[in-house]
Amino acid sequence: MPQKKSVARIGIAYALYMIIGEVAATLIMLFIQSVAPDLAKNANMQLLVGTLPSYLFAFPVVYLMVRNLPKLKPYPRKITVGWFFAVFTICMAGMFAGALLGQVLGKLLNLIPGVTAENAVSDLVMQVNPALIILTVVIIAPIIEEFLYRKLLLDRIGPISRQMAIILSGLMFGLFHANVYQFFYAFIIGMIFASIYLNTGKIQYTIFLHMMVNFMGSVVSLYVSQGNNQVVTVAYGLFYMALMITGIIMFILNCKAFMVQDIPGSLPKDIRSKTIFLAPGMFAFYVVTLLLLILSLLM
What we know:
- It is built from twelve helices and no strands.
- The chain is mainly alpha-helical.
- Helix 1 runs antiparallel to helix 3.
- Helix content is about 80%, strand content about 0%.
- The model has no long low-confidence stretch (mean pLDDT about 90).
């Protein structure tokens, strides 16, 4: 079945993305440790080594492996500025709910002897230069990740089943983070981004949304947490609460707008889930990401 082969190839490509990124980062860090041990302990360097090798070495591999697979781009549609910011509030509400689930799971895992569930990304960001956070987390990461987990993925899975493609995009985006604290909120906002892309055909919308979410989660929250101004802390808390309440209301009122319909030629319902989620290549991606997650819990 051509569709199953395409999905298998996609799964293998994304598994290789994780492997190449991890191996490249490890080798680069080992080299830095051998020539400049103090530099290897620097949080700014750790952030750069932990992110850039995947984008520089692994992303081109994925692109070359999937670019010639059958694809169908969504029909481009514009959205209003008001709807864009409504979606942003929904993303913030989803991010809060997912982060809460991650915190609960992290605390439960820490009860297991030998397991240490830490929010390593959050701990690292707290020590990094804000300008570097903006460059890597707020600008570069959203661009690369939206092309990876929305455009490249959805253009090729969408023709098989747009509905299942949304779930797959969220699932792969969550597993990609290989961190229990990030999995749930990445899964939720990944599905929101996937729905927006399939409904509009414009990757720039999800890139900007991703940038705004990362800015709020990494830059603004960092500034507030490091400051000692109680007024600012309270004001931020009230603002965030207002965003979440607005997001919940917006989702309830507009949940139908996030739904997509499968296009003519999509696989029948009785085989599409198996074709998309159980392809051998997808299992390779699941295994690699879960192994990285387990290693993060045991190290």
